[in-house]
Amino acid sequence: MGVPRFYRWISERYPLIRRDVGFGEGTPIVDNLYLDLNGVIHTASRADEVDKPVLSEDDIFLNTFKKIDELIEIIQPTELIYFAVDGVAPRAKMNQQRSRRFRSAKERLEEAQKSAETELISSDNYFDSNCITPGTKFMLRVTEALTFYAEKKLKEDRRWENLQIIVSGPNTPGEGEHKIMEYIREKKAKGKLGNNKRHCLYGLDADLIMLALVTHEPHFILLREKVNMGPGSFGKSLMPKPPKATQTGAGSALDYELLSIGVLRECFDSEFSGLKLSFYDLERIIDDLVVLFFIVGNDFIPHLPALDIGEGGLDMMLRMYKHLLPGQGGYINDSGTVNLNRLERVLRELARIEGDTLVRRREMAKHKGRGAKRITIDDLWTDDVPELKSSNQRRSAPTALDSRRQDLERVIDAGNSENEDSDASDLLPDEALIDLVNLAAPENPLEVHVMLRKAYYEAKCGFSPDNMELLSTIVEDYVKVVLWTVKYYYCGVVSWRWFYPYHFSPMLLDMINLSRYSDRITFELGDPFLPAQQLMAVLPPSSSWALPQPYRRLMLSEESPISKYYPVDFKVDLNGKRNLWEGVVLLPFVDERELIAAMDTVKPEELSEEERRRNKPAKSILLKKATSPNRPAEDRRIVKSPIPNVMKDFPAGSDLEEVEPDVNVEPFHGRKPDGVLEPVNDNETLGGWPTLSSVPFFSAVRPMMVNVFGHPSKYASFVVTPGNRIDEDHEPTPFLPFQSVDHAMRLGLKPGNRVFVGYPFQAEARVEGIMDSTTVVRFGQDGSVVREKVTGDRFLDLKMKTIERQTTEKALRMVDSTVLCDVRLPKTKNTFPGEVQEYRGESKIVAGELLIPWYRRSSKREVSQNYVPGQRVLCTEKLGFHGHVGTIQKNRKRRRG
Fold this sequence. Notes:
This protein is α+β, with helices and mostly antiparallel strands. Helices cover about 35% and strands about 15% of the residues. It has a nine-stranded mixed sheet, sandwiched between helices. Strands 19, 20, 21, 22, 23, 24 and 25 form a seven-stranded antiparallel sheet that branches. The longest helix is centred in the first third of the chain and has 24 residues, at about 90-115. The chain is globular and about 90 Å long. The protein starts with 5 loop residues before the first helix and ends in a 10-residue tail after the last strand.
């Protein structure tokens, strides 16, 4: 699930880190492709036809295969493909899964009641996505289908023959993305990963960004579907649309985007290196940022009442961190071990604006959002805001009250004058708290804060903040869940059974003396739940059909000793949010001892053999091309088809072995691997990988109103200005490598030449024409190169549109541009990167300053690895043999030079 709005926030703050994967545009060469497949399965199961509301399992598996084919066609990995499906999750995540499944069941029932179709609800006429949970019959078949698909591709698709495939199914414990991280961490710790491994991770969850950062692998990209983040999109499904009948291959890649972790690391480096720290270390700063991102929102850590991304919480957090870091003398996070004293300084700083945030929301409630000026958390924090004291400490002097009121009034007067719009990224006041704190209460901000604090704990946590024992307990558990989460990302699961036992977090004002908990907080690893136990822990009663029959009565019978855990109706606390999907589902926490005791009343013989098999943990499997492919068919395994009506069984052509995980693996350390190469233009290994350094630049963080998702951002962005030096006015001088068309042509930039465009990404294109303020050199209709005069107004108009587009979409501030180029993208991508058949794709105008000269990237595979003597081929060259079928007789390497 990840962090709500985090992907949008980071894309708008650092817009150069992402780009759409367009039709025919090349992607960097990737060694390892990791597929987090739960999202694929959800998408594949969704029908796209009114007259066929439910897909058969055969259709779902075929859609899944088609989707995986598409992803692999886009990335074309050279060494490894990792298929990861969610297995049993830690209890800390299971509670969130339980909430999500109960809420979706309730929404489905309410929608059906509105449509007067209640009687139609059954597992026979709609696909219950809750069955995409470990332990169900459907998920057992998913494992069989993925294994069949991988074995079939290894046997029949020559592009797969040098690949290793890992299939980690739902019976292998762990979340899919974290099983991928376990693989990377183990290979890295044992020195088997290599210093310049090129990774791509596919998935929709925003926390994949944090996972990739945690690895400290600089050559890492994320692939995901484009999702609608325009006005009114929040609350709607963020899942991609189900697959449609489209052309195969990269033509469907328009619906995807890439995010470069390497470019994000460069942005962090450029932004934070300006602090001039004596102990500056980019890797350690990245580790600290991961912890701060967790604090703002995560599947495991409950939302803090006064901190939200939609109110500028992360922008304020980064400014605050920069302010505090020089005086900290070190970092918060050391390879998964959190320094609580340094973390407390950040939380105490956040507490200084907690009261103002709550008062502001109260003010919004009084005005019902009408006529009130938009104030964000980022507006409220300055480094001279007086510190608040917890109610169990001494109260602030009365003289501070007027100062606080004046501070608040100054902020409101100076705030953004625009009215609240309909964007769901804005918060609504929490009505429950507003009711408890009478709107006629004193206007003194500190007194209102005290009242809101009391109301918060009584309404949300069920006790008074005057109860110091309970208050200390919830603070300790909050600290513990932060430590658990950081350990989970850096070291793997440190406790399968522990979870945060509250629906809400404590208030920031009470985060004091955190170091006292250090010696008291410990974790016991324990064992993961069995798949059937997880089903009983997360499924709502309406999905009981997915359980083995003997367990259903435990969920449905009023006489069941655990019936209290399966309410049909329950409350959702919006907790100050606008959308139901953001609310807190108020379900009772399942007592595992009661659950397991009740399930133990079901005897093993009451379960079928298949049901017992569904409940057994399993290991991941490794598949690779058989070392002895020519052995007799009777000596080979028979791969059983999960869809025999469509695909047949076949003798295995691959070797299969179980993967034995190593549980004693070092955590991800806050350092970059030794011997890491930088993706400079002439580098054979990393040529084509995105990098800011392909153009000299200066950077700053400032408001730019970039438009990444359909409307302007409200917060600051990382602005890049190409330039070589700073002039006397402290402005970057323009980076102008080409003074004119003639100068560019003397340097080799000519119509017909190949270049890379899309800075900082590198998409191959061909130059169609070059223009300056007086001249254009381009291809004529007969294919010859012609030179024509151009008016200065036309050039100026094109230049301004180009500069405006770069500024608006990428926060790329072009001071000037002397040469523009008309480039054409390839229509199709060949099997070999850098070798393009035809340039008939989209034509676009780009600034000459952002072009990267073409260099020959090494192919992913030599021709001899793809075509062997005796293989039949189709000739596509537009020569005398176009369209003829031939047979490969001999391979011959082309000489260079």
